[in-house]
Amino acid sequence: MKHAISAALALALSTAVAAPVLAHGFSKPQHGGIVTTSGETLFELVAKPTGVQLYVIDDDEPVSAAAMTATLNTSVGGKMQSVALKPATGNRFDGPAMKLKPGAKVAVMVINKATKVRMGGTFVIK
Fold this sequence. Notes:
Blueprint: H1 2-18, E1 34-38, E2 41-48, E3 51-58, E4 61-62, E5 68-76, E6 79-87, E7 92-95, E8 105-112, E9 118-124
Antiparallel strand pairs: 1-2, 2-3, 3-4, 3-7, 5-6, 5-8, 6-7, 8-9
């Protein structure tokens, strides 16, 4: 009995110690872009010569782009530009090619079409 309690305690402690290693959420880019988070929502912005892509993960689950609208706003040297992104496959939104220069601020807003819940994040291009 004493051995069973010790084993159970050891298991509980090992789980508690391992929990920080298995922290909630992703933090590294999965598509070669830059990442920002807001609460439980992760946004990854990928700038390619052919266009910009935005990937959205909420509470560790890919968001269905088809069920959302997405807008990207940039500010460079006081000049604002707003672009509507189009839903693509999975959790990806696509937009036109944009010159995202170092120092540019990029804000994204994703809105659930059904519930009107808004999720947003901000990037600073380095």
